[in-house]
Every structure is written in C-alpha cells, then in structure tokens.
Design brief:
Length: 649
C-alpha cells in the first residue's frame, strides 16, 4: 500500500541520496546552564536514517501499544526541546495521529488538564524532565487517559533477541494511508487572551504553504541552498514548530536544536557559521574568519535563527559584562553575518533593538509577523530590497511617534503574495457595516486583518472559528488583535503615485486590542496573569477571597519590546468591618506586609509572564457586566507612570 499524500511530502528528505546525511544536532543543557553538542551523557546527533528509524519505533508504539488511530490526539507534556519530540512529530505523519502542545514555560496544572480534556487526547507523553506534579495531576484528574514515558516507548517492542518489533513491522502496518492536506497536522494552543486558551487546528496544507511562504520570503527557493535552522525557542510555540516541520520536508537541511536558550547559544552559532567543530576555538582575528565564511558562502549555507528582541538584550549584557564565554572577540558575530539571518518576531522591533543588531551582528534584523492561527507567517520585512531602504522604512514608523499625541509604528514588512494577504481596516464588526472591513487610507490607524494561510478551526468548535474567520466576507481573519497602519513603500513617493504605479505597501504595528502582555517573545493574557497572582496572594498572605480584588496589565515602561507587569490591588480594610477578626477585611499590618514584599515574593513563586514589576493600591475599574475594564486600567497606569516621571520617582 503506498504512503499517504501527506507523508509523500516528507519522503524526499529521508530517501536516497539523503538518508545518511546528518539531519539533527541537539544541544542538551547541563546543570551549569550551558549546552553542548558533544555531551557524552546524551546522543546529540542523528542522521536522517536514524531519525526515520526512531520515528518508526514511536509510530509502532503509538499504533500497536497505545492503539491510536488517525485523528487521535497525543499531548506532548515535556519540559524542554528534545530530539524525541522531533521524532514523534514525524511519527505522527506516519500514523495520522495529532500532537498537542503544552507550554512548559507557563501552563499551570489546571491548564495542562484543560488542554488534555479539550483536545480529547487519548495519550499524554512525558519524558524524564517532565515535572512530577504535572504527571500526578493528569493521572489524578484524568484516570482514563494513558500516560506514557518516552524512555519506556523506546524499550517497548523488543523481542527476545533484542530485535525491534518496529523493524520487522511493515510500513503497511505502521503507516496511515489516508492522510492529506485537509487533515490536522498539530494542535497548538493560544495564550488565552479572553479566558481559556483556544486550541488551533493546523493542517498539513497549512504547513505546505508555510514552507512555500518562507522559501519565497527568505529567498531560499534554490534546492541547492543548505537551509540550516538554529532553534532555541520552545517547540511548543508555533515558531519552532513551523521551522521544524519545514526542516523535516526539505532535503539537505541540517536542524540545530537547543534544549532551551542559554548563553552558549552565541558561541555555538558562531562555530556553526564558520564550519568549525563544536569544541574548536573561535578565531580572534577577521583574517582567520574570512576564508571560513567565504567557504560557507560557496557551499550555499543559510543559517536562519528565529529569535526575539530579548535575545539581543541578553547578548548586549553578556558582551558588556565580558561574560560571553569561549568568544575571544565578540566581533565574530559580525564576521559571520553573510551566512546568518536573524528572524525576529513576537514583539515590536524598535530603534534600540535595531541599534543593537547593527552594533553586534552587523546587519538589520529580518522581522516576521503572524500568529498561531496563521501558521506563524503573515508578512515580513522584504529581503529583496537594500538595507538602506529597510532602515528607512523602520525610521518612518518611529517618526510617527514624534508627532504630538501619536504612538510610533513598528515596521513589520509586507505580505507574501500569493500566499498571504493583509489589509488595515476601519472596523471588524459585521454589525457596523459602514466601517466593516473598509480599508483604511494611507497612514490611518485601523485593525490588521489577513487571509491566505489560516487554521482549519478551533477545537472549541464552529462558533469560535466563525467569529474569527469571516467566511462570508471573503475569508478574512479578524482575531489578530493588532492595530496598525500602512504607508507606500520606498524612500520617495512621486506625485500621484499609488497602487496603480506598482508600489508596495509597508505595514506598521502600533498596539494591541487584546488583553496580552508580551514578555520574552511570548504573549500572556491579562486574565491568566490575574488568576495566577490572585491565587498567589491568597496562599502567600492568607487573604480570603472577597476581601480583595487584583488585576494586572502590561505596558512598555523600561523596554521598547518587553512589557512590565503592573498590578493593582483593591482591598476591603478590616476597619471597614468594625476592626474585627472575622476575616471580612484586610488589617493594616497585613496591608503593610503585602506592600513591602509582594513584588519580591511573587518573582520567586509565579510563572515568568506573571512576575510583577510594580504593585499599587487602587480601585479595579469594571464595566457594567462587572468584568475588569482593561482599557481603563491601562489608562490609569499610564497616568500614574506619567505622574511619577514628572515627580522624579
């Protein structure tokens, strides 16, 4: 029986003549927070043949041991990137099963359980580093869901002579024959900006178009190019998921995967760009590096590094504090720039970030813009125009913020026809036809909408999907939650020039309409942070529900791309209830304890997104329904910050 049409897209990368090529190099992180591709305690490299065989073994266990069938979901409850996660994603193509991701950086126990339940997963996959409390919670709350350890899966199916059962099983037994572009490839959950996170179904067709989009965008359509993704972002994000799937489909690709971001990312990147072994010393002189870079250019190496602005904050600190280990001359990152592309997303790219890249890596970033529902990519800063033109485009957006009462625009580039389309529109509410999907004029702020490579739907059902994708109005996706504007591209605009003159629109991001805080390139919902900090406050300080209200918002205060987490707490004082000890209020002593210790205590106890930057006492504004009015709360904080600035605080 022939393989499915979906699997056929992956076979060229794993068949002759590529099966013995090196495909994956993994960088496990040691207890010293460094990463090495020569860690003797771990296998760190896989050829295509080895990864294929590992994936077949996982496919055997999923189908024969776990009894999964096409369309059944398996939750990947891991605690870091791993080679096994990559192999399981290829195994799911063989079997037709659907991986479901869990955010190991921020998902609390109840959210892990919610994702297992809402995806109707039949199996939860764990590995040695999965937190034991997560495993215990799943087993306790969901006794009907099987929990399987990756390490045990590797041992299943061995015969008496140690022969792998997967090796003797035929492809007919293992491979799902009826799998095509309309079937679900993976489910990735959003951050939950309006309550519970939504499970996004992305199809095989989405990832076909994703590859086509990126190869056109990054000028990688030449099959002889050695596409080399260098990944440190988590595999539970749509970012690393998209690049991993692309690598699995493309011959000659060598995927480099860090267990997580560490400071050793930078020397490892430099060695790879120079073609040096993992343990080789880096050159201190450009005259030594130049011939190595030239050789890499001749071999058509394209090292693509998906990053966020925060990574370059870290890089600057490492260089200034002389903590960039194994790098005798930090200028090596400039010397290798001809073969390295830094692809920035998930947060605004402002003047400080651009300045850092020019200073430390010698060229502008390539900015990408999109969301989980759009299979990562909607638009990006064009690589087929000069650096001078791109820098000018960045500066045009920043200049808008110099006008009285205006916020700056952050350049996010252009869509990728014929794969994606973008508009900035006056309104997205069908009940207001005068503004609904009416395109804004040049420079006018509006809602960013897109179509072209959209999810097949949310796991929550048709109603949630219909609200996001307006099928009857041309298929526009309106749930990006971003406000922006557009300008005609180019440094000069001739009188009367416009769309009819073949000019292209440059798009700019201004702000969010959704309740999200950006930190470390990840979106965290206000509601999620508020729930976590409310629970922390109850447990840490013994405050009873109903005696206080807490709400958190995010605003950029000390950074152009990172939000501060700003917390407002409204309390009922014990004095308001007669000063008694009946628990109906908060005593002055308890109030002083919270005021003194809240920010410090919370940072050691809550997830990264919920770590507070500042706390204040005040009323939590609410709308007529009793829900927190996030826009008013943001405005209140802006007024507070402005007053503090005026008073010199």
């Amino acid at each position: 029986m022939p393989p499915s049409s979906a699997l056929l897209d992956y076979l060229p990368a794993f068949g002759p003549p590529h099966e013995d090529e090196l495909f994956l190099t993994f960088y496990p992180v040691s207890s010293s927070s460094s990463a090495s591709c020569h860690n003797p305690a771990f296998k760190t490299t896989w050829s295509r043949r080895e990864l294929w065989e590992l994936s077949r073994r996982f496919a055997y266990v999923l189908t024969k041991q776990a009894k999964l069938k096409k369309g059944d979901c398996q939750v990947h409850l891991f605690a870091g990137n791993s080679a096994e996660d990559v192999a399981l994603r290829l195994a799911s193509v063989m079997t037709g099963t659907v991986p479901v991701t869990v955010n190991w950086d921020s998902d609390p126990l109840d959210r892990v359980v919610f994702k297992v339940q809402s995806s109707r997963a039949k199996v939860v996959l764990i590995h040695a580093k999965t937190p034991l409390e997560q495993v215990a919670e799943v087993r306790s709350k969901l006794p009907g869901v099987a929990v399987m350890a990756v390490e045990d899966m590797l041992e299943h199916g061995r015969g008496e002579e140690g022969q792998e059962a997967a090796d003797v099983a035929s492809d007919k037994d293992l491979f799902e024959p009826d799998l095509g572009n309309d079937d679900t490839r993976i489910i990735i959950y959003t951050s939950g900006s309006s309550g519970e996170p939504k499970g996004v179904r992305l199809s095989y067709g989405n990832y076909v178009r994703n590859r086509e989009t990126f190869e056109a965008f990054l000028l990688l359509q030449d099959p002889a190019s050695r596409f080399t993704p260098f990944l440190a972002n988590p595999l539970h994000h749509t970012n690393s998921t998209a690049f991993t799937d692309w690598a699995l489909r493309r011959p000659r690709t060598h995927l480099h995967l860090f267990e997580r971001y560490t400071t050793s990312y930078w020397p490892a990147l430099a060695r790879l760009a120079l073609g040096l072994p993992c343990s080789a010393p880096l050159p201190s002189m450009p005259s030594v590096a130049q011939p190595l870079v030239t050789a890499q250019q001749s071999s058509k190496l394209r090292l693509v590094c998906p990053t966020v602005s925060r990574h370059f904050d870290f890089l600057e600190s490492l260089i200034e504090e002389k903590k960039l280990a194994d790098v005798p001359n930090p200028d090596v990152l400039k010397w290798v720039s001809p073969v390295v592309t830094f692809l920035l997303g998930s947060a605004p790219v402002g003047p400080a970030t651009v300045e850092r890249l020019l200073k430390y890596v010698g060229h502008l970033p390539v900015v990408r813009f999109g969301s989980t529902e759009t299979c990562l990519q909607v638009m990006g800063t064009p690589m087929d125009v000069s650096e001078e033109e791109r820098l000018h485009a960045f500066k045009r957006g920043w200049a808008v913020g110099e006008q009285p009462g205006e916020e700056p625009g952050f350049y996010v580039g252009r869509p990728h026809p014929p794969y994606t389309e973008v508009m900035v529109v006056e309104g997205i509410d069908p009940a207001a036809p005068a503004s609904y999907l009416q395109e804004c004029r040049e420079g006018q702020k509006g809602f960013i909408v897109t179509r072209g490579n959209l999810m097949t739907g949310y796991v929550q059902g048709e109603a949630a999907t219909k609200q996001a994708i307006h099928t009857e109005a041309g298929g526009w996706y309106t749930n990006l939650g971003d406000v922006g504007f557009w300008l005609w591209g180019g440094e000069r605009r001739e009188a009367g020039s416009g769309a009819g003159c073949g000019r292209k629109k440059d798009f700019y991001w201004v702000t969010r309409t959704s309740n999200l805080l950006i930190r470390g390139g990840t979106n965290y919902s206000y509601e999620q942070i508020t729930r976590e900090l409310t629970l922390f406050t109850e447990e840490r300080y013994g405050l009873l529900p109903g005696t206080f209200a807490l709400a958190a918002v995010g605003l950029r205060v000390g950074s152009e791309h990172e939000d501060d987490c700003l917390v407002t707490i409204e309390i009922q004082s014990a004095e308001d209830h007669g000063g008694g000890n009946d628990g109906r209020g908060v005593s002055n002593d308890k109030r002083l304890e919270v005021e003194k210790n809240f920010v410090r205590d919370a940072k050691g106890c809550v997830s990264k997104g919920a770590q507070p930057s500042r706390m204040r006492w005040g009323a939590v504004p609410r709308n007529f329904k009793g829900d927190v009015n996030w826009r008013v709360l943001e405005a209140d904080w802006k007024a507070t910050l402005a007053q503090d600035k005026d008073s010199g605080k």
